[in-house]
From TrEMBL:
InterPro entries: RUFY1-3, Znf_FYVE, Znf_FYVE-rel, Znf_FYVE_PHD, Znf_RING/FYVE/PHD. Residues 301-359 form the FYVE-type domain. It comes from Sagittarius serpentarius. Pfam families: FYVE. Gene3D superfamilies: Zinc/RING finger domain, C3HC4 (zinc finger). SUPFAM superfamilies: FYVE/PHD zinc finger. The keyword Zinc-finger applies. GO terms for cellular component: cytoplasm. One of its GO terms (molecular function) is zinc ion binding. Residues 52-296 form a coiled coil. This is RUFY2 protein.
Amino acid sequence: QLAIAKNNIIKLQEENHQLRSENTLILMKTQHHLEATKVDVEAELQTYKHSRQGLDEMYNEARRQLREESQLRQDMENELVVQVSMKHEIELAMKLLEKDIHEKQDTLIGLRQQLEEVKAINVEMYQKLQVSEDAMKEKNEIIGRLEDKTNQINATMKQLEQRLQQAEKAQVEAEAEDEKLKQEYVNKSESLQKEFSQKEKQLLQLETDLKIEKEWRQTLEDDLQKEKETVSHLRIETQEILNLKKEFLKLQEKNKQLKRICQDQEAALQELASKLSESKLKIEDIKEANKALQGQVWLKDKEATHCKLCEKEFSLSKRKHHCRNCGEIFCNACSDNELPLPSSPKPVRVCDSCHAILIQRCSSNVP
């Protein structure tokens, strides 16, 4: 039992030693944790001090801006009293401008119709020109073929004339030989008769050949006459084509004149479009002035929790700013622009969208 007790004591001593070591580790961990928490508390205290200082500065700045905005509101109320008297004159000017715009739109519609008619006439003239050019090409080809045929016929005629002259010469020579044979060879009548009969046969054959060649020549002359008639007909057609060319040149001149008229009308249309855009810009200016006269919507600070453009939430560090043109509330990044307005000749804060619209309007008004 004593040995068992000693073993238990040894085990308890070992457990006690382990517990002491664990206790020391826990104490060290708690000390490190306390030190870290102290550092965090000191950092939070410093940040709280800095934020408190910044909040005080922002509060003072807000009070100053509130005073400025109240002063601006008083000035705008005074200007509103002055601008109410101008409202009736602006409405009359708007009516006159709308009437002028309607008249210009009617003239634009008429000019566009005239332009479409001119374009249709140009297309029709171009089609006629293509048809006449195709017909002229075909007729020129036919004339070339006919000239080739006439040259061939003339060559064949010359060949036939040469053959006819040769046949006539042969006939004259045969007759001369016949006479000589009659005078010299009277005694040899039988042989001469045989030869004469042969010559007569040759003569008959030559006469038949001559008749055939005459008929062939007659047919060739008839063909030549027909070809001459076709050539004369084609010459008449070429004359008509030349007349068509003259008409086409006249049509081209008319087309050029119509194109000039069309260009003048397009220039007039461009001028009318520029005037129309200017009148529209004037109407927009008058409408905006009318809105300003009727009472510009000045959004309250409590109604805005997010920026109108970037939709970021307002906080102590992200302050609210009013656009002096539209009256909406934006952050500093979305309203970091200054421009003079009709309500205030000095440059005032405007948002990015109003800044872009006002710059575009100024650039369109500049010639």
